[in-house]
Every structure is written in structure tokens, then in C-alpha cells.
Amino acid sequence: MSSTQEMDQEQETAVGSIIKHDLLASVVVFLVALPLCMGIAIASGVPVAAGLISGIVGGLVVGTLAGCPLQVSGPAAGLTVIVYEVVQRFGLEMLGTIVLIAGLMQAVAGVLKLGQWFRAVSPAVIKGMLAGIGVLIFASQFHVMVDDKPKGSGIRNLVTIPQAIWKGLAIPEFNGREDRKFRTEMLRTVGDLHQRQVNLHERVAERVPHPGNREKPESSDALVEIATVDLVDLATEQSQITKELSAVGVRLKEFETESVPSKKFTRINEAASLAILQSGAAATALQQNNIEEILPRQVQAVASLEDLMSHQKNHHLAAYLGILTIAVILLWQGAAPKPLKVVPAPLIAVVLATLVAALLAVPVLYVEIPNNLWSDVRFPSLTVLSSAPWAAVVQAGLMIAVVASAETLLCATAVDQMHQGPRTRYDRELFAQGVGNVVCGFLGALPLTGVIVRSSANVQAGGRTRASAILHGLWLLIFVAGLAFVLRLIPTSSLAAILVYTGYKLVNPKSIRDLGKYGRGEVAIYAATVSTIVITDLLTGVLVGIGLAAAKLLYTFSHLATRLEQEQGSRRVTLSLQGAATFVRLPALARELEKVPARAELHIDFSELDYIDHACLDLLMNWAKQHESTGGKLVIDWQSLHARFNPDTAKNGAPASESVVGPNESVGESTVSQ
């Protein structure tokens, strides 16, 4: 057979393998990734489209360049806390820039071959970080699961969980179908207006920076120049929102007149009147180029629409859909036939909750996503960049880079243990993640990492090459581009329920037992990392964990326990050493040697010693010279010492089992390397 024929046959075999294995695996990974991309976006406080774009980039870009072919990348639950804090602190318009900076750092680290260094973190810190993130996700998404907003901090979210439970346990207001359809329609309409108002606010902020964010006060001429920048289109859009909001107000009043009077609908109408007023004021500020009023009016317009939505929410119905979602996940994982388990449990749960919500016209919040995915793409704006607090922005980018890199490379290590294929090239994987995050940052999307849930699904579904990860990104792109209307049928509470379950799984009590096998110190580091993350923030928690791990390492290499025992009626004295005999503990060892009686026969027990350095060996040899002058002896088990610290030497002909140093004997330069 010719070489050309052999090459053709190999290509046909490769194509056949992709069709047979990777095509099916890519569909499974796509089904797992779809609800997670949306749920993580909601948990991060960004539009759903930002999560979906990251999933697409993770497949098409990172999948092509990846150093771990079977690892699947996308938005990760581990970064939701950081992203949420970034958005709250800097605004959604700065997220893309921060992610882009993180990506550049990762790419440079990959080029400099620093991939292995990102793995040099104590497992207790990593597991503590994931558990802390799990607690924060669980606590924040518990509120979203009942169509409420997170309370702002981890502690507040945890403390107010009973309030969320109380809201979810309220007596259902399950009125007639026409009533439910009207409430659902109003929620959708107001939700769409709210999303448009948020987007408009961001676009206004890009063109008209807030005076408080400028490094230098602007002159009146400069303010006029900024105000005369093309704001006509923004004013027109704000007026359109006001017009549609007024139509909503009319319909709400008509419905209140036709239905049974209730305090709830009275409050809804009052909130609608306020939202119309605030939206109109925002439109007037834009039309009049009132530079000092434009952004404050935008903030008020967004807040009033959020208030209107909050009055329309049905927390109990959302809670029931969330509980249904979690119950389906648990039942599917435990009772589904093995051949059907290839279909992810979260997907089954979301589909069922969506069907129930659609058939019963349940008036709850639904996913907000534009018909055109590109309308939610936010390219970095020169206006925003010029007024950015760069020191804080770079620090945030560094935090995302470090956490994303650690999570990615640890995930890659876990993926390597799941299959027998090619091993991970860590530097290439780090570079690929950096390129992916640069693209995500340029598009204003969520940061991405390698994620274990999607990666394990890929391996278990039979993925063999990087084609499965690439194809899953293609399926996401096709689905989002052509079937966005389907995503708008999904209740937000159902996606939040998936993340509540994900947060619980991240805590993973089993990891505490595993760490306990290595001592209480590892468990203490884990607990300190978790509690600090929950009480303060992720960066502080990780730094505390790393600091404690370093302190434990220092303690381990500086701790030496000594025990001196003398047999009754005998000259034999035994000195047992436990821990690390280094120069740091030289004084303690010297004190023990001073307690040895004259003319005693001292035996050194190294059986529980982890390490001994030249300084301590030199002390023993010098002490032996003095001790022999009083008629004493020093007996050292060199063979056991060699066996512990130099196994090769012990195998290839170790010295005599004991060396006795006694009166009138010369002590040479005895060392462990002897």
C-alpha cells in the first residue's frame, strides 16, 4: 500500500472516530452546558447572553487551542462570586476590560511556561475555595430561586435564607388561567423593558461618564462638548421605553378595574406610575442634554422598573418551580435507567419545569435574552476606559487570572485521571485559556475556565479528541442564534435551582473527611479558607488559606519533638527525634544533649524523623567528641538514616547498621550522604 493510501485511510479512520465518538459526546456536553451558561450568568449579575457567548468561545476558540484536548471550557461557577463583585463595583461596562486583562495575563504566563506554578497551591486551600464559593452560590441563588434578589454579601444572603423560605411558603395565589396569562405577560413585558433600560443605562454611561468618576473636574465647555455627542438616538430610545411603559400602566389599571380589588394590585399600579414618571424624567434629561442629570435619572429609571417587577413577583410559585427542578435532578440521578443517564439531569429538570410553567401559564420571572445575540455584545469603550480606576481594575484582572488558571489546571489534572489518552500540556492550556478570555473580554462576556462538570460529561460520553469540545461550542452558537425564543420560556427560578444544587455539591462534605486523613491542620486550613471567603471576600479567603498553608509548612520544617529516656540500672540512654531536625531547632537539640549523663551510651532513634540537615548532624558529631572524653559513647543507626533519606544508597550497599563512637575514637565527617 502506498504512503498516500495509508494517509487517506488514517484520515478516514479519524473522521469515522469523530462521527462515532466525538459527535455524540459534543451533543451531551452541549446539553449540559446550555443551562449552566445561563444560570451562571444570572448568578454573576450579567445578561444571560454574556454566559452563552463565553460558552461559545470556550468551545470554538479554547477547544481549538487547548493543551488538554478533552477538557471543556466555559463560564464557571467558581468565578461567579468574583464577577458579581466586579460588576457591583465597576459596572457591567468594565467587565469586558477586566476579563481582557486577565486573559492577557494568562496568555503571557503560558508563553513564559508558568503553567506548572499555578498548580502549586495546597489542596486544602483549593477545596476550601471551592467550598466557600459553593456556600456563596447556594446562599445567593436561594433568593433567586424564589424570584428575589441576592442581598449583597455572603453573610446577609445566609442570614436571610429563612426569609426566602418564608416567601416560598406563602399561600399560592393561583387564580384563573386568564388572570395568570395576563400576569405572566406583564412580567415578561416589564422584564423586557427593564433589560432595555439597563442596556440603555450602560450605553449612556459609555458616552457620558459620571462626573464623580473623572480624575479632573470638567469645565462647562467640556461638559457641553460631551453632552453634544450623539445622544439623539439614546433620547429616542428612552422615549420609546416611556411610551411602552405608559401602555403597561394603562393595561394594569384596566385589569385592576375589571378584577377583584386587591392591595397587591394597588401597589403594582403605584409602582407603575412611579416607573413611568422616572422614565419620562430620564428621557427629558437626554433630550435637553442636561449633563448633570442624565446618569442619575438613568439610575432612578432602572431602580423604578426593578421596584415594579418586585411588586409583580410571585415568590411562592417560583419556589415551587425551583423545588421541582431540584427534585427532578435528584430523581433522575438516582432512579433513571442507566442508558438514559447519558442525558444530563439538569437538562431534564429545566425542560420539565419549563413545560409546567408554559402549560399552567405560571406568572414568574423568565430568562431575558435578546433575539439578536450580538445586541448584548459590549466592546470596550474609550470613554469608559479613560475614566477607569486602573489600579483597582488591574487588581481585579489579576484575581480573575489567578483563580481561573488554578481552577483550569486543577480541572485538567482531574481530566487526565479519567482517560488514557494524551496528557495535558499545561503551558499550552494556560495560553489557550488566556486567548479565550481575551476574546471574551473583547466581547464583554463572562470569563471562562476549564470546568469539571462539562469535562467529565465529555469523557463519560466517549469523547476522544478536541472535536467534541469544539462541536459543543458550534451547537451553542446555532441554538442561541436560531432558537432564542425557546430560551425565553425558561423560568429563572429553575436555573437558580440548578445553581443551588451546584453550590451544595461544591461544598462536598466528603472532601473534609479526605483532608482529615492528612491531619487536623489541613482541615483547619480548609475551614479558615471557607469561613473567611463567606465573611469577607474570595481574595481575602484565598490569601488567608495560602498564608496558613505556608505557616503550616514552616511549622512542619521547624518542629522537632525530642524525648530522652534512660533505662534503669543501665548506661544506655535513647534520644528519640520526631519531625524535622534543622538549624532552626538546633538550640532545642543541644539542650537535650546537655541532659545526657557523663559516660552514658547514647542511642539516636531516627525512626520518626522526617528530615535532618547538616547543621544538626554536625552538632551530633561535635557533641560526640566531647562526650567521649567522659567515657561515653554515641551510637547512630546510619543504615536506617540512609534508608529514610537516600533509598538508592541503602539498596546499593549501605554501611554497617550502627556506628559506635566511643572513647579515643576518631569521628570523621559523617553525613547522610555518606
From TrEMBL:
Major subcellular location class: membrane
UniProt xrefs under Pfam families: STAS_2, Sulfate_transp
Membrane topology qualifier: Multi-pass membrane protein
Region spans: Disordered: 649-674
Cytoplasm found in the keyword field: no
Signal peptide start and end residues: none
Membrane-spanning ranges: 23-43, 49-70, 90-112, 124-146, 317-335, 347-367, 388-410, 430-453, 474-504, 524-555
Keyword line: Membrane, Transmembrane, Transmembrane helix
InterPro entries, alphabetized: MlaB-like_STAS, SLC26A/SulP_dom, SLC26A/SulP_fam, STAS_dom, STAS_dom_sf
Gene3D superfamilies given in the database record: STAS domain
Subcellular location per the Swiss-Prot or TrEMBL entry: Membrane
Domain named STAS: residues: 573-636
Name under which the protein is recorded: STAS domain-containing protein
Native organism: Novipirellula rosea
